[in-house]
Each structure stands twice: as structure tokens, then as C-alpha cells.
Amino acid sequence: MAEPKGSQDSSLKPLPLSELFLWGRVRRPHGLKGDLLVESFAENPTAYDRRYFWVVLPGSEEGRPYRVATLRPYAWGSTSKSPNHLWRLRFAGETHRTQAERWQGAELWLPRRYLPPLEGDHFYYIEALGAQVVDSQGNFRGYLRAIQPGPAYDFFIVENEAKASFWIPAPFVRRLRRESTPPCLEVEAPEDLWDPTLAQGRP
Questions:
Q1: What is the pLDDT at residue 76?
Q2: Nearest-CA neighbor of 144 among 160, 163, 129, 125?
């Protein structure tokens, strides 16, 4: 896939995914003037500096900075509210739909240094990905491979060394020990949830 031209800023450096967090993803081009319809995954999308996004294209392991020309909530029908965190984005230098089509499938990331520190047992999901997972008895259960949003709560998807997957509801996740290498996620879940056959049906 050819990299879009856009307005890549040479004064800012490309960053690896380990130094970024996912803000949103491009859904599709919108209109004829280079706009994009994007979905934000941030709980508070406006809490961060969004003058630049570090864009990660499919298959890439780093984000490249592009300057934002406009970013505003997407007007849904007759209401000004933005359902599901939908936004209308245009990168600097983009003026027509053909340019916008090149961004299909791109993800929009921001530097982790933008995130404020959390207190107590609270942690950001991005800190936990890849962590080793132990149960309430300290038994190793696998590694956290993904976090899947759900209608009532999120699911922490744990994969063990045999490649079996377990879907653990967020209420059973207790704390993240950041001082461990790799970080250690403590989970207090009923033994039935460690049955890999339950994950095959997916909640």
C-alpha cells in the first residue's frame, strides 16, 4: 500500500507503537473535499492535543506524524451530537476525495506521554497488553493478547502457551503490577472462566 502524502511533518519523529496509544480509526472518506469519517476509541476524545496524529497504516509497526487541518464532531442527522465518537477529519494538504481514499484502514495514534498518570490500582489498557496474567493464587494463566469492548463491560482475552484463549470480564481484573517485567495482571475469576471451550462461543 502506497503511503499517503498528506502533510507529514519532518520536525516530528515517527514513533514505534510502544510509545503511542490508539485514539481512533478511519472508517471511510466523507464527501468530495478530502474529509474522512473517523471513530474515536478514547473515553474523552478532546482531552489530548490533536494538532497532529501519528498515522499507522495496515502492516506498519510505527506511526508517522501528519498535521490536522480540521477535526470536528460528525453531525448525525439533525442533531449536533456525535454518536459512537464519530468525527470528521481532514489532514492538511488534502483537498479532494481521491486523496482521502488513500487513508482507508489507517489508525490514528497519539504519544503516550499525553496520558496523565493514574493513581492507585487504575491503569490504562495499553499498559496491560502483553502482560503476564496470574490468578488469585498466583498461578500463571497466560498473556493478555487483546481487550474486546462489550455492551456491559470489556473482555480481557488471555492466551496461554498452548494457544488456548480465555475471555475474562473486566470486573474480575484486579490490578496491574507495573514493576514486574513483563507487567503482571492479577485476575480473580471463577475457575469455569478458565475453560477454553467457553471462549470458543465468545460472550
A1: 61
A2: 129
Does the reported pTM lie above 0.90? no
Q: Rounded to whole angstroms, how far apart are CA atoms 29 and 95?
A: 12
First to last CA, the chain: 35
Stronger pLDDT, 191 or 43, i.e. the higher one: 191
Please say whether the beta carbons of 104 and 29 come within 8 A. Answer: yes
All residues at 6 or more sequence positions from 116 whose CB lies less than 8 Å from its CB, including other chains? none
Report pLDDT for 6: 45
Query: What letter does residue 156 receive in the DSSP assignment?
Result: E
Compute the C-alpha angle 20/24/30, nearest 5°: 140
Residue 56: per-residue pLDDT: 95
Q: Which CATH number fits domain 15-114: 2.40.30.60, 3.40.630.10, 1.25.40.10, 2.60.40.10?
A: 2.40.30.60
